[in-house]
Specification:
The structure is a homodimer. The first copy, chain A, is mainly α and about 130 residues long. Helices cover about 70% and strands about 10% of the residues of chain A. The structure holds a DNA duplex (30 and 30 nucleotides).
Chain lengths: ~130, ~130
DNA sequence: CCCTCAAGTCAATATAGTTGACATGAGGCG
DNA sequence: CGCCTCATGTCAACTATATTGACTTGAGGG
């Protein structure tokens, strides 16, 4: 399973490295892509890291204008994160490298096999 | 997939932490369990880390007498590693925690589903 | 005696996280 | 207005796990 994880992320990591980013940046982009306007606090909870650990990669992404942050309009005190067009592009390309690997593997086992794979992963991921 | 990996290793990691060990120690024990009398150089290659990185956890395991090392008898200049009884016990208990999680997940999808899961993992692990 | 190979060790550095303490900016409220 | 709280931001010290480079040790071989 360890090697499976490595095999899936290998090409995406190479792509990210060329952009001067790493896995932690991708995790942030990935979460924000799937939950636009997420607050920083929620992001911290989802990623399961401290705000200090989030700070550096997040600022880098903001500085590169891959993400924007703005106070919630007329509402809360939290800042909402959103991908810029450039951010979307990078997130997609990195995730696509991973999806490509998965798609090829799923093609070999068919739809039922793919569904079984998902079911197994969900079951063990629940094991918290 | 990340959460799947975490779910699988979570309980094993808790057990290992109680023994004052970590994932890296388990990796060493795991490899030696499956390849008794392995040389240190081969272990380094399999784990894919530098000898300096291996040094610390390996010495800890030797110091705790979970592993033994001895010069190859009348043969080479390499040292061969082997688990002690205590080492086997710890390795088994840690691996059993992981296998338990997998077995439960496999039970839900049946033999064909389990085979499909394995096939997918092997395909993506090959992606080097 | 010298060379080589496998292993062991020392030091400096990188990466990715941690905890603790404190600062800032906005809203709610008496 | 002044004070409290919440969400965020930042500084510093520390830990764990890895890296590369340089050097040592111990066992054979020619």
């Amino acid at each position: 399973m360890y090697y499976g994880w490595r095999g899936m992320t290998l090409e995406a990591d190479e792509y990210l490295a060329k952009q001067g980013l790493s896995r932690s940046h991708h995790r942030i982009l990935y979460v924000v892509a799937r939950q636009p306007d997420i607050a920083i606090g929620s992001l911290i909870e989802i990623l399961g890291i401290s705000k200090q650990a989030l700070n550096r990669p997040l600022n880098l992404l903001l500085g590169r204008k891959l993400l924007t942050s703005q106070r919630s309009p007329e509402q809360h005190r939290s800042k909402l994160l959103r991908l810029t067009e450039a951010g979307k592009r990078i997130e997609q390309r990195a995730s696509d490298q991973e999806r490509k690997v998965m798609r090829e593997a799923f093609d070999r086992v068919g739809a039922r096999g793919a569904a079984a794979w998902m079911a197994v992963m969900e079951t063990i991921a629940d094991n918290n």
